[in-house]
Structure formats: C-alpha cells, structure tokens
Amino acid sequence: MNDLYYDPWHVEIDLDPYPTYRRLRDEAPLYYNEPHDFWGLSRYDDVESALKDPKRFSSAKGDLLEVVKADPVMPPGVFINEDPPLHTIHRALVSRAFLPKRMRALEDKIRAFCIACLDPLVGGENFDFVLDLGAELPMRTIGMLVGIPDADQPAVRAQAHRVLRNKPGEPLPVKKDHYFDGDMFADYVAWRKKNPSDDLITELLDVEFDDESGTTRHLSSEEILIFLAVIAGAGVETTGRLFGWMGKVLAEHPDQRQELVDDRSLVPGAIEELLRYEAPGPHVARYVTEDVEIHGQTVPAGSAMLLMLASGNRDERHFDDPDRFDIHRKSVSHLTFGRGAHFCLGSPLARIEGRVALEEVLNRFPKWDIDIDAARRSRTSTVRGWDSMPAMVS
Ligand code: HEM
C-alpha cells in the first residue's frame, strides 16, 4: 500500500511541502485523507477548474478547511464565504475600495511607511524582514484604505492574528455558533457615521444598492463591519507572510537579487515569481454540493475539498522547471490569488506592498544573509511563512 500522506497541519510536511505535493500530483491527483475526512486537488488545471465552478464547489460553508468541516453559522455579508448571486452583490460594493485610483493614492503612503520602518535601521548590522517590516505594513495599508486611525491599528491587527492562528499540528478551532466577529471596527464606523469624510467607510454608509430581495437600500452598520472584517481577515496575515519569503528566497538567489539592485524594472516580475514560488496562502477549501466525478472517482456531495494553490504553482504540467526560482519567468500565471468569482480583491494592493517594500529594502540593503537558525516559522494551516526572518546586512 502507498505511504503517501498529506494534511495541511502536519508540521514536518509544512516545512517543505513541495516533494509531497509532487507525489500527490503524480500518484493521487485526487487525494482522500481518511483521518481528517477531506479530499484534495493538487494539479494546476484541477485546482483552477474547481475554483471556477462555484455551483459544485461552493464557498458558502467557508473557504478554510476547518471552517467547511465545522459548518458554523455564517452571518450574511461574509462575502468570501458566499456564492453568486449574493456574493456578486456584496463583492460589487466592496470593490469600491480597490479602484485603481485608490490604489495609486495609497502607493505614496505605503512607501512613506516603509521608509519610516527602514531608515532607523540603516547603519546597523541586521534587520528583520517580518518584525521590522512585514508585521505592521499590511494592517497599516488596510487602515489607509478604509481610513482607520493609527491608534486603533495594533488592536485590529491582534484580532486578525487571533482569528487565523492554529496550534502547531492541530486544526484551527472554529466556534460553530459564533464563527465570525465583525466587532473590531465598531467604534470607528459609529464615529464615522457622525463625522463623514472622503474615506471608504463614509462611501459605504452613503451607497444605495439593490439587495438580494430587490429592495433598494443603504448598508447597515453591521454589514459594513462584516465587510471590513473580511477585508482585514483576508489581507493581513496573507500579505504579512510575503515579506519573510522575500528575505529568504532572495538571499538564496544572490545573483537575481543583484539584478534587481541594478534594474528596478525587474521588481514587479520578482514579486510575481515570489508569489508563485512560495504562496503565502497555500490552499483554500470548498464544500462539494453534488457528487462529482474526478480522475475516475466519485467525490460525494457534502465532502470538504482542499484546493492546493501552492501545489498548482509548482505543477510541471503548467510551468517549465517549476522548482526553479526565476524572476525572468514570462507570464507567471500563478494560483496564489485564486481564480474565478472570489479572485483576491486585494491583489493589486498586495502587489504594491511587495514591490514598494522590496524597492525600499534594496535602496538601503543591497545584500544580506539570512540567519535561518534564528528565523521563526508561523505555525498556521491557513497561511504559510515566517513570524521572524532576521537578516545580517553587508
Ligand atoms: C499576498 C497576499 C495575499 C494573498 C496570497 C491572498 C490570497 C487570496 C485568495 C487565494 C483569495 C481567494 C479565496 C477563495 O477563493 O476562497 C483571496 C480573496 C480575497 N482577498 Fe486576498 N490575498 C492577499 C492579499 C489581500 C489583501 C492585501 C487584501 C485586502 C486589502 C485581500 C482581500 C481579499 C478579499 C476581500 C478576498 C475575498 C474576495 C471575494 O470573496 O470575492 N487580499 N485572497
């Protein structure tokens, strides 16, 4: 019998999941994990097809494996966990936050924040890609996006951190009757109601839309709170993981790092390749709504399905020499931001954060080595990366 085993909580596998992913793609492209009772898809094409098929692979019970299996009560408005047509209505409202003009306006602020983080470290011998940069930037950026005051930001980040963390080797605990808490921005939305400005929250308070029953109305404060909590939940821990990988992978590829120092026009391609090579969110999950035939086997209705984005990103059926990190790779069509209806709304922002942070690092520290023994993994099943990535600069 085959010794192939995979689960997303396995601490050893998670350290380097790529050999296991390869075996899954080759030996069990449809994988069933009996102890934890979930199915898994690991090939690029299979993952992509499932993501584009919300009718059979539904998000309505969650998009994290633990959540799909716990099947908690889901308040309306958690649009990342909704299917069309409700999802389409809610996503259209939230998309206002991510219009290109808003993104462009944020770039200068993001750069100013990176400069403020990095300048005090110049002249020192080391800095930490996560603790000094990645830990704060994603929440600050969302704060800039929706207009959250600086003073409230640490509390909001701590909340997002709690929601997404599991104990090593164990699934994330999910409260069945109270899975989603939208309270973290409550005081601020109440205050904005009385003090309108030109920020996103005011815009969401003002907007009129046709809801699922066809009624034209305003959003309630509760709905806005849920939307904001979804954005923070989706955008903080994921983007935070990007920076640890940035430090590690570029230190392991000094020639390509030097090319980036010499030619900044290569930076966007490097960020894209980094996202492919080490996906900060390695998988999403779906609920199977009807019996589905895949690779000659039937996945029964009611199953939980894990879609391994990070494995698809290394699928040799789709990418040439996928285990090679190559900033010159043409059209890096990775799965890191998902596909289809739920394609990451914040991807333009994540890309700006990655690009600007890397530019500002290279401006100050063109060379560094990683102290891998002192680096600390973040032990989560939902995001994969580092809580600390110390670099010695030269
Ligand atoms: C490197 C960083 C990021 C990664 C790897 C990432 C990944 C993803 C993935 C895979 C999905 C699809 C989930 C699914 O299909 O179930 C998603 C959705 C989403 N992401 Fe991101 N994301 C990142 C950054 C961000 C940022 C910065 C924001 C916001 C500021 C954000 C906001 C969202 C939202 C709101 C959704 C839900 C979209 C929907 O359901 O229609 N993400 N993200």
Structure described in brief:
This protein is of the alpha+beta class and 394 residues long. The chain is built from 17 helices and 14 strands.
Textual characterization of the structure:
The protein has about 400 residues and is α+β, with helices and mostly antiparallel strands. The protein has a single domain, classed as Cytochrome P450 (Cytochrome p450, Orthogonal Bundle). It contains 17 helices and 14 strands. A 5-stranded mixed β-sheet has the order 1-2-10-7-3, with helices on both faces. Strands 4-14-11 form a 3-stranded antiparallel β-sheet. The chain has a two-stranded antiparallel ribbon with strand order 5-6. Strand 1 and strand 2 (about 40) form a beta hairpin. The radius of gyration is 21 Å and the shape is globular. The protein starts with 10 loop residues before the first helix and ends with a strand. It binds protoporphyrin IX containing FE.
Q: How do the helices and strands line up, and which of them pair or pack?
A:
Elements: H1 11-15, H2 18-27, E1 30-33, E2 38-41, H3 44-51, E3 57-58, H4 65-70, H5 86-94, H6 100-118, E4 126-128, H7 130-134, H8 137-146, H9 153-164, H10 186-194, H11 200-206, E5 208-210, E6 216-218, H12 221-235, H13 237-252, H14 254-262, H15 267-277, E7 283-288, E8 292-294, E9 297-299, E10 304-308, H16 309-312, H17 347-364, E11 368-370, E12 376-378, E13 385-388, E14 390-393
The structure holds protoporphyrin IX containing FE.
